[in-house]
Amino acid sequence: MSLGSRQNPATRLIGAQPLPELAVQSFRLELVRGPDPGQSWELGPRTRLGKGPDNDIVVADATVSRHHLEIEQTPAGFLLRDLGSTNGTFLDNARIVEAYLRPAMELRVGEVALRLRAQHEGLRIEPTGQDSFGELRGRTAAMRRIFALLERVAPTDATILITGETGTGKGAVARAIHAAGLRADKPFVTVDCGAISRTLIESELFGHEKGSFTGATHQRRGALETCAGGTLFIDELDDLPLEVQPKLLRALDAREITRVGSNKPLKLDLRVVAATKKDLRQSVDQGQFREDLYYRLSVVTFALPPLRERLDDVPLLAERFLTAAGTSWDRLQPAFQARLLAHTFPGNVRELRNLLERASYLDELEAFDPTCFPSDSTPANADSELRFAIDYRRPFKLAKEGLVHRFEREYLSRLLARTSRNITRAAREADIDRKYLYMLLSKHAMMPGAEETGGNEP
């Protein structure tokens, strides 16, 4: 089965437990009420159902027409069409002529009831021989398997769902997929559902017209519209409000949106990549996430392993971060290397980057200082957090300014790493005004996207 197929939405890759790390999900139509219940049929690119012997699915029931309906696999899902049947085609008790068939919906043809079911089989993907994919790095088998998968699906328009703990690099993977895809020269737009107020998320996604709600003083294009042929990355998908999910599903199905306060539909042309730190299948079971949207977004899905499960990748990842600081892994003290390779990294790759940046700012990269490592089992001691080197021979004012300078850089470095460099979230967590945060970041040459080499210390 080809993983790179653009016209096979019935094939999905799932990484959630208890499924294998990578699995194929294929859809079958199962008869739940009628003659011989329990039998099922795999759906092809175009499947015709009726009681006539020339159909792909033959249902021998008097209430089913000779050629009753057909199901076509489209990029948007399974499109169901009634073929002029006598007794009609119904989805969840609503008679339809043409509609999309989703898992969990009841399909009724005459007096016969069917459901779309998913089945999973473990998928074996051989690791690629490469230890990188775009800007991503990893030489462990787990990461090279993911790189092999990305080599196949990135050049397609498949919708991708990335799962993994906070800090594992889901955003970096999304950017790498975009850069290797057909839309690389188009915009890459991120919507962080965890950083946007629930009352504003709909406007953020779909845009709004002037006067559509209190505070809407001008027209605004939403993220789906500003993608304009590019890639939309929906981060923290698990934080998407339940009431907004149906509208997102309709937009992805119809490939069009309507701004808040408008009646004019706008056509969409985009690819969607989403990320979540939660088990969305469990959220579906608990009624916290719509099942139909879950299936719509999980055309391809895989889990990024936590860094503690791929410690052999630490030197390769560290080398990338250290290059920016003008040094290399080989120049680190053996004790520093050993401590890095033994650390459990609860913050994953983001913690590794933050730790190396901190050591760089404090000139500790080539002189091992164990206090730069937070405890794996207990919170770091408050005194050790502020144990910066002080030259007591300097005048009081200069020594104080130097200490404050290093404290600000340390605090800002950790703040940016913890908030994925999201300025709005960082200002909120630090409880400071955004303008003041911008001033501090500019002062220390730490603006997101800027070269973070740091200003001159007093």
List key phrases describing it.
disordered C terminus; 458 residues; 5-stranded mixed beta sheet; disordered N terminus; 23 strands; alpha+beta
Total number of helical segments?
14
Radius of gyration: 27 Å
Terminal CA distance: 62 Å
Let me know the average pLDDT: 81
Structural class: alpha+beta
Structure characterization notes:
- By secondary structure, the protein is an alpha+beta fold.
- It has 14 helices and 23 strands.
- The chain has helices spanning 141-153, 170-179, 201-206, 223-226, 245-254, 280-285, 291-297, 314-324, 334-342, 348-361, 382-385, 396-418, 423-430, 434-443, and strands at 12-13, 23-33, 40-42, 46-50, 57-58, 69-74, 77-82, 89-91, 94-96, 98-101, 106-109, 112-122, 132-133, 136-137, 160-163, 188-192, 207-208, 220-221, 231-235, 256-258, 265-267, 271-276, 300-303.
- Strands 1, 2, 3, 8, 9, 11 and 12 form a seven-stranded antiparallel sheet that branches.
- A hairpin with a 2-residue loop joins strand 11 (106-109) and strand 12.
- Helix 10 (348-361) packs antiparallel against helix 12.
- It is elongated and about 100 Å long.
- The termini are far apart.
A few lines on this structure:
The chain has 458 residues and is an alpha+beta fold.
What's the SSE blueprint?
Blueprint: E1 12-13, E2 23-33, E3 40-42, E4 46-50, E5 57-58, E6 69-74, E7 77-82, E8 89-91, E9 94-96, E10 98-101, E11 106-109, E12 112-122, E13 132-133, E14 136-137, H1 141-153, E15 160-163, H2 170-179, E16 188-192, H3 201-206, E17 207-208, E18 220-221, H4 223-226, E19 231-235, H5 245-254, E20 256-258, E21 265-267, E22 271-276, H6 280-285, H7 291-297, E23 300-303, H8 314-324, H9 334-342, H10 348-361, H11 382-385, H12 396-418, H13 423-430, H14 434-443
Parallel strand pairs: 4-5, 15-22, 15-23, 16-19, 19-22
Antiparallel strand pairs: 1-2, 2-3, 2-12, 4-6, 6-7, 7-10, 8-9, 8-11, 11-12, 13-14, 17-18, 20-21
